[in-house]
Fold this sequence. Notes:
By secondary structure, the chain is α+β, with helices and mostly antiparallel strands. It is about 20% helix and about 20% strand. The chain is built from 2 helices and 3 strands, in the order H-E-E-H-E. Strands 1-2-3 form a 3-stranded mixed β-sheet, covered by helices on one side. The protein is globular, with a radius of gyration of 14 Å.
Amino acid sequence: MSDAIRQAVLARLARMPGPDGRGDLVSLGLLSDIFVSDGRVAFSITVPADAAARLEPFRREVEKTVAAVPGVERAMIALTAEKAPGGAGAAPARPAAGGAAGRTSIPGVAHVV
């Protein structure tokens, strides 16, 4: 069931314009792995660090769109802001909570199991 939900979420996101109004979220490659468990969906969208605050309404729109997919009980979408390489003040990477190998950590979103 979770694979069917993941595919339905991807199909819905493939019809959603990217944050700049061009392309779509899937083909632009802005999404992290999509975690699905017990009707909960979690992933992050990579955006430029200087645009994160301005894109909060966009994040809420994506979350609302994903929550409307049949089988989704709760959607937790985060914006992951990346600075350009060598940018001053870039935060160091942190390991995933619990140190579990193979898990992807989504900043601001608890791992869904």
